């Protein structure tokens, strides 16, 4: 099985969000399960020199973008046993940013999508499945079926399209996309590429891909509703038979508190002394009061409305009145950086905020925090809650998407659960859940220890999910079964067809009668009702 991952980012080369973690972690696991997996992504200027210096040039060619031709070079690098290809064009990808600032995103990723398809011939690599990720690769399934299907090299290729976040769709003016990809007016209709008067790269993938996936079973259900569907719920309901939710995993080797070199002390579920050290050192590093008895709550997130920060804004004073310490790490909207800057000055020694992308500090927050807060408005999968549990930080989460699939609220009657959850998107529901978690932390250490152990011993690896992807690839590449239905010619063509009841009787009798040698047909007599089939006797 030959698989090509097409994505706009991938660890360890370039990362802005969870997409990079998924592509970087899933590909080597699929390789270990026997697939020939390769990954292709843009060669951004931000990719570290330590990787660029190891790349070798595979081929060079020109990509046709309607009336113009653009240079494309393909470079390669092997990492963790997986071959990575990088699409080189300095005009599109040699910029100081990854996404969204130049106003020509439709052209940048339109070029990338066509370059991915054209590169396969030059690389002499013919994948069975091209697995496309998010809107940046949404035009690949569309172009394959619209413009490349007549070429024998591409005819048997199948596509799988994964939705990582339906909110980001790649919506652009129709004329601009036509001028880039040479797509006719007849393709920009409501059942194809047009979406509310614009071209939509995400919709292109949803319409033309052979199979659709998203990153958790609950999110697959949610996006078929108007509330979560981002105006594409009708299309997703129409393709529900080709839509499946497969839960993401995490890299359990990178996120392993027993051997993580980026935290202050290592520990495991049954020797938690190192976690206490991590908490004390984190409090010192961030200027918090060093106190082992105070519950330390961590947040590592993009600072946006999606992540539920408006709930925190509503009850920030009541939240701090519970006696917690709060640590926030992330970048995003100004209203939330202003909120936490104010709160840091309002609660000195109790709240620390760092507005940066700091991988090492993130590991230390996972290891040093007692609880991890994720009150998301929606969450396709979420990796942070799984990483937090891996490090023994008990999650407090809203029941949505992947959070619902991975965090089970503690039930005091059955002693089941690995965290604390709330259902309604409501600030005071969140506040009540935080108070409940603080109560158990302070008053029932036996339960708290069991929650830590359950979280740390859970299976968050990619192996189970990778098996589901392999089954999906096998299914989508399986040849369709062809068969024909033949009608028996009646003895007398002038005779009207037998009634449905009579046909049913004949079929039933045929099943019961033993197979015998064929004899010349005799004149048909009156039809007898078939005897009921005798039940076999029990031994």
Short description:
The chain is of the alpha/beta class. It has 20 helices and 18 strands.
What does this structure look like?
The two termini are 47 Å apart. β6, α5 and β7 form a beta-alpha-beta unit. This protein is globular. The protein is of the alpha/beta class. It has 20 helices and 18 strands.
Characteristics:
6-stranded parallel sheet, alpha/beta, globular, disordered C terminus, single chain, 17% strand, 539 residues
Ordered list of secondary-structure elements with their pairings:
Blueprint: E1 2-6, H1 18-32, E2 36-42, H2 49-52, E3 56-65, E4 68-79, E5 82-88, H3 90-93, H4 105-123, E6 129-133, H5 139-147, E7 158-163, E8 171-172, H6 174-181, E9 194-195, E10 198-200, H7 201-208, E11 211-214, H8 217-222, H9 233-238, E12 243-245, H10 273-285, E13 296-300, H11 309-314, H12 316-320, E14 325-329, H13 334-346, E15 351-354, H14 359-368, E16 371-374, H15 384-390, E17 394-398, H16 401-406, E18 420-422, H17 427-443, H18 445-456, H19 463-477, H20 500-512
Parallel strand pairs: 1-2, 1-6, 2-5, 6-7, 7-11, 11-12, 13-14, 13-16, 14-15, 16-17, 17-18
Antiparallel strand pairs: 3-4, 4-5, 8-10, 9-10
Helix pairs in contact: 4-5, 4-6, 5-7, 10-14, 15-18
């Amino acid at each position: 099985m030959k698989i090509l991952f097409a994505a706009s980012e991938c660890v360890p080369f370039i990362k802005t969000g969870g997409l990079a973690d998924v592509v970087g972690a899933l590909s080597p696991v699929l390789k270990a399960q026997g697939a020939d997996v390769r990954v292709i992504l843009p060669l951004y200027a931000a990719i570290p020199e330590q990787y660029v210096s190891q790349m070798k040039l595979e081929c060079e060619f020109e990509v046709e973008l309607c009336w113009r031709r653009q240079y494309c070079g393909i470079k390669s690098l092997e990492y963790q046993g997986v071959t990575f290809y990088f699409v080189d064009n300095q005009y599109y990808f040699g910029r100081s940013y990854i996404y969204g600032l130049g106003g020509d995103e439709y052209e940048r990723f339109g070029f990338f999508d066509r370059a991915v398809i054209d590169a396969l011939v030059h690389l002499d690599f013919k994948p069975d499945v091209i697995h496309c990720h998010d809107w940046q690769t949404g035009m690949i399934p569309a172009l394959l079926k619209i413009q490349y299907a007549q070429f024998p090299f591409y005819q048997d290729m199948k596509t799988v399209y994964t939705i990582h976040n339906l909110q980001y769709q790649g919506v652009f003016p129709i004329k601009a996309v036509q001028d880039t990809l040479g797509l006719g007016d007849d393709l920009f209709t409501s059942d194809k590429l047009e979406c509310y008067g614009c071209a939509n790269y995400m919709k292109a993938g949803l319409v033309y891909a052979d199979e659709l996936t998203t990153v958790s079973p609950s999110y697959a259900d949610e996006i078929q509703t108007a509330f979560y569907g981002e105006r594409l719920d009708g299309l997703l309901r129409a393709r529900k038979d080709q839509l499946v939710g497969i839960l993401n995993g995490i890299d359990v080797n990178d996120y392993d508190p027993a051997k993580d070199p980026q935290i202050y002390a290592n520990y495991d579920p049954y020797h938690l002394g190192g976690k206490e050290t991590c908490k004390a050192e984190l409090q010192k590093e961030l200027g918090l009061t060093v106190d082992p008895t105070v519950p330390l709550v961590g947040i590592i997130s993009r600072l946006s409305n999606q992540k539920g920060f408006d709930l925190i804004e509503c009850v920030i004073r009541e939240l701090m009145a519970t006696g917690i310490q709060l640590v926030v790490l992330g970048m995003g909207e100004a209203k939330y950086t202003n909120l936490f800057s104010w709160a840091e000055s309002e609660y000195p020694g109790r709240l620390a905020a760092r507005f940066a992308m700091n991988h090492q500090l993130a590991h230390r927050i996972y290891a040093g925090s007692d609880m991890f807060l994720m009150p998301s408005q929606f969450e396709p999968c979420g990796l942070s809650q799984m990483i937090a549990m891996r490090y023994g930080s008990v999650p407090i989460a809203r029941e949505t998407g992947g959070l619902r699939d991975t965090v089970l609220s503690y039930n005091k009657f059955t002693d089941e659960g690995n965290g604390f959850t709330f259902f309604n998107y409501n600030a005071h529901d969140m506040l009540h859940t935080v108070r409940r978690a603080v109560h158990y932390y302070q008053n029932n250490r036996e339960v708290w220890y069991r929650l830590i152990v359950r979280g740390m011993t859970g299976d968050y690896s990619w192996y189970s999910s990778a098996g589901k992807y392999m089954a999906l690839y096998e299914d989508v590449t399986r040849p369709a079964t062809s068969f024909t239905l033949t009608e028996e010619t009646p003895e007398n063509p002038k005779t009207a067809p037998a009634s449905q009841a009579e046909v049913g009787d004949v079929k039933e009798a045929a099943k019961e009668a033993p197979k015998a040698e064929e004899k010349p047909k005799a004149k048909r007599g009156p039809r007898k009702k078939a005897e009921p089939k005798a039940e076999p006797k029990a031994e």
